[in-house]
Amino acid sequence: MTAPPTSVTGQPATATAVVPLRDGRTGKTRLAEHLPAAERGRLVVALARHVVATLLAADGVSRVLVVTADPAFVTDALDADPRLEILTQPSAPPGLNAAVEFGREQVRRRWPGDRLLVIHADLPALTTADVAALLAPAAPVTLGPDRAGLGTNAVLLRPGTDAFTFAFGPDSLARHRHEAQSLGSPATLVRRDGTAIDLDTEADFSALDPFVQERLRAAIAATDLLPRLQALP
């Protein structure tokens, strides 16, 4: 019998991560007034590379599925890895929730015993310890709130939660908590900087640890993007 997949430390891997990722032209549109499309694209790449690399290095993650409508962009952006798969999102229905649902269908069909970890691609402070914290609870549904406590940056679903409906968008945390309760038990909330801080505004950048700021600066050092991020009103 084939041994189960293992992480880099040799521990059994028990979850498949699904990362929805927009293309480099339409991502980070809230920064469009201050950052040209090419620079937003470089920022999308730097953030996604960090999130995917962190997931692949984390104990308990067997594989990472990136769901995108632009597979050529994502293939160029990410380093190849045998545990990384890029999935093309069908053209209909469009949108974030449809992308996540498509990823869940793949996991349910191909690895029905795996837990499903849905996590956003723009978390610059994400660490393997953050991933471990998301995987640790025994609850059917675990949620990683955003910094404001209104949105959702990560969802962990255990097998048997197929009735859970993804509701990403404004104020998604309340909707996801309601979905969990409808399955019979409250969601467990995991509040950590690494899962809470996404990067859409200057305030988000300011909330990052200086070490993370410097790492992001190094990743895109060829541009003056970060000084302008810091100068956003």
Automatic annotation (TrEMBL):
It catalyses: phosphoenolpyruvate + GTP + H(+) = enolpyruvoyl-2-diphospho-5'-guanosine + diphosphate. Coiled coil: none annotated. Transmembrane segments: none annotated. Its EC number is 2.7.7.105. The keyword GTP-binding applies. Pathway: Cofactor biosynthesis; coenzyme F420 biosynthesis. Guanylyltransferase that catalyzes the activation of phosphoenolpyruvate (PEP) as enolpyruvoyl-2-diphospho-5'-guanosine, via the condensation of PEP with GTP. It is involved in the biosynthesis of coenzyme F420, a hydride carrier cofactor. This is Phosphoenolpyruvate guanylyltransferase. It comes from Occultella aeris.
